[in-house]
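With this grant's support, we have settled on a layout for protein records. An illustrative entry appears below exactly as we store it:
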Amino acid sequence: MDREGFPPQQLEWDQKLWWVHVETLISLLKGYQLTGSEESLQWSKKVHDYTWNRFKDPEYPEWWGYLNRRGEVLLDLKGGKWKGCFHVPRGLYQCWMIL
């Protein structure tokens, strides 16, 4: 329920999504690059570790798209209508360029 007691509108309200995490990595690294904020750097390390430990399939080189709130794979598909081959390589490339 939301703060007004209504059910959530978004279907993925309780999920952790691959694209949100990769975009967060980019944002935190850019924040560090532009400001030198140690807090941004520390958060980027935390998000990096979580993302690589939870989203990356250890057997096949692709990321899971959807995790539950406990960080467990929710859907074992790695591609579909919404999860394609855009966010992960683009995001990793941008992180690499910043570093």
